[in-house]
Specification:
The chain is α+β, with helices and mostly antiparallel strands and 197 residues long. The protein has one domain (24-195): Nuclear Transport Factor 2, Chain: A (Roll), CATH 3.10.450. The chain is built from 7 helices and 5 strands. The chain has a 5-stranded antiparallel sheet with strand order 1-2-3-4-5. A hairpin with a 2-residue loop joins strand 4 (156-162) and strand 5 (165-166). The two termini are 33 Å apart.
């Protein structure tokens, strides 16, 4: 099956290759320990005994703490961000942070009654890929891969793959569709994103 790459996808991919830099000080042990801490914090919430509905805001907080949301926002915006003012980019990043934390932080609730095991680390251009397996209650195990870097100044993950689905590419596609519907109007698209539940 052939996939037609649009201008936004192609140019954005080239740009991401150009700006990618290796994380000089980061080691496999650092990246693995970081994800191990994230998993421990997830299960600290799960084991707290609070109702599942009350766990979701806690999972959102963990996502915001451990994820490099600014980099994710920049990538999701892609080439459309080039013509945006600093204020527009900042407004989008703030809304995107809340949106992404709710959308993916809430998915940590799937891990209730299961466990997550770190399988290994592999060095990549931007840092390290940490492969984990989530053993979910009443479901088949799923692969969860975190891409970890310290190039923003602190150790954070900047992308996730859930059963092979790339979080950043998914969000770039969805944000791109919002912008297309709004004729490239970032302010209007930011308001649309803010309204997503």
């Amino acid at each position: 099956m052939q996939t037609k790459l649009g201008r936004r996808t192609f140019i954005g991919g080239v740009c991401s290759l150009v700006v990618a830099r290796p994380a000089a000080a980061l080691t496999a042990n650092d990246a693995t320990a970081f994800i191990t801490r994230l998993i421990a914090d997830i299960y600290r919430v799960i084991d707290s005994g609070m109702p599942e509905a009350d766990m979701i805001p806690q999972f959102e907080t963990l996502f915001e703490r451990y994820a490099d949301v600014d980099i994710m926002a920049q990538y999701a915006l892609g080439v459309d961000g080039r013509s945006a003012s600093p204020a527009q980019k900042a407004a989008f990043s703030d809304v995107f942070s809340s949106y992404i934390a709710k959308k993916y932080g809430g998915r940590f609730g799937q891990f209730i009654g299961g466990r997550i095991e770190v399988e290994g680390a592999r060095e990549i251009k931007q840092g390290y890929e940490i492969k984990t397996t989530a053993y979910l209650r009443g479901e088949n195990p799923i692969d969860v891969i975190f891409l970890v870097s310290d190039k923003s100044g602190e150790l954070q993950f900047f992308n996730m793959f859930l059963e092979g689905v790339n979080l950043l590419l998914t969000e770039r596609s969805e944000i791109g569709s919002m912008l297309d519907r709004r004729g490239g109007d970032l302010i209007a698209a930011t308001q649309d994103l803010k309204a997503v539940r």
